[in-house]
Amino acid sequence: MRIAVTGSTGLIGTALLRSLRADGHDVVRLVRRPPRAADEVTWDPERQHVDTAGLAGCEAVVHLAAAGIGDRYWTEAYKRKLRDSRVLGTAAIAEAVASLDSPPRVLVNASAIGFYGDTGDRPVDETAPPGDGFLARLCQEWEEAAAPAEEAGIRTVFARSGLVISGEGGAWGRRIIPLFKLGLGGRLGNGSQYWSYISLQDEVAALRHILATEELSGPVNCTAPEPATNREVTAAMGRALRRPTLLTVPAPALKLALGQLSQEVLGSQRVLPKRLLETGFSFAFPTVDSAVRAALS
Fold it and tell me: How many domains in the chain?
C-alpha cells in the first residue's frame, strides 16, 4: 500500500514509518522544505499548500504533524501556535486529499483525549461529549478542520491518543524517565488524577489497525484499556527502575512552574478504547506496569 505521512520525524511518526516499511509498504513523507529524496513531498501548512501531485496513488494518509503540547510554557503566542499547527495543518491536508481525482480511501487524523476535558473518576469512551477548557476546544477545532475530507466521502478517523509511554522520546522519554532514574520522581499533586496512557508499540499497532479496519470512522480512542492514576504510574516507575518515589510536587508548585498547562497535568482523564476493543484490537501492553517495562527495555 502507498501511504502518505505527515509528522514523520516525531516520536509516533518515526515508529510508524519503521513499522510500515518493515512490512513492505511504500511510504511518502510530507516535509516542510524542498524534497531531498524520492519519498518526500513538500507541504506548507501555514500557507495551506500541499504538492498534491506527490499524493497521487496514495491509498491512505496519516496526518500526525502538530506542535508539542508540553514543549513550551503556554504563552498566548504559543497557544496560537498549538492551534494553528493543528487546525491549519489538518485543513490543508483535508482539502488536498479531497481535491484529488483518485482520493485515498482513508485519512487518519491525529487528535487527543484532551477532547473530553477533565472527566474526574468517570470513565468515558468515544460516545462522550466534548469537555471544557483550552485543549478540549482545540481538539474540537482540530477535528472539525477535516470536514473537506469527510464531505468528499473519504473514511476519516480521529485517533484520540493518550499519553504515549516510550523511552525513545516525547514527554515520557525526555522528562519522566530521566527524573525517575535520578530518584527524583514522585506523584504530581495528590496523585489521584487518572492518566490515560498507551505504549508506543500499541500506538503504532492501533494506527495500523485503524488503517486496515474499514468499519472504523470518526473518533477512536488510542489508550490502554486500564487507565491508571498518577499515584499508580509513579509506583510502576519506581518498581521498574528500582528507585524511590517519595517526592511529591504540590499543586501550587506545578501551577507556578507550568502556568495554564498545569490544569492538564493535574486534571483527570479516565478514557477507554471502546472502539478499538470492539473491532478486535489486542493490546500488547495493556497495564501501566507492562507499558513502562516496554518503554525501558
Answer: 1
**CA dihedral over 215, 142, 111, 229, signed as positive or negative:** negative
99 domain residue, yes or no: yes
Give the 3-state secondary structure of residue 217: coil
Domain that holds residue 105: 2-162+199-222+271-281
Count CB neighbours of 217 within 10 A. 17
Domain-located, residue 106: yes
We report the CATH number of the domain holding residue 22 as: 3.40.50.720
Q: Which helix (H) or strand (E) holds 249?
A: strand 247-249
Q: What would the pLDDT profile of 57-85 be if each residue is shown by its tens digit?
A: 999 999 999 999 988 888 999 999 999 99
Identify whether the C-beta of residue 10 lies closer than 8 Å to the C-beta of residue 65: yes
pLDDT tens across 167-186, in order?
A: 998 888 888 899 899 998 88
Distance CA 32, CA 7 (A): 10
Please enumerate in sequence order all residues whose Cβ is within 8 A of that of 137, keeping only pairs 6 or more positions apart, or say none. Answer: 130
Residue 262, classed as helix, strand or coil, is: helix
Q: Is residue 246 one of the residues assigned to a domain?
A: no
Q: Which cell goes with 259? A: 502556568
Global pTM value: 0.95
Residue written as grid cell 483518485: 102
Chain centroid offset of residue 76 CA: 22
Contact at 8 Å (CB) between 70 and 261?
yes
Residue 297 lies in a domain: no
Q: Is the dihedral of CA 211, 147, 92, 51 positive or negative?
A: positive
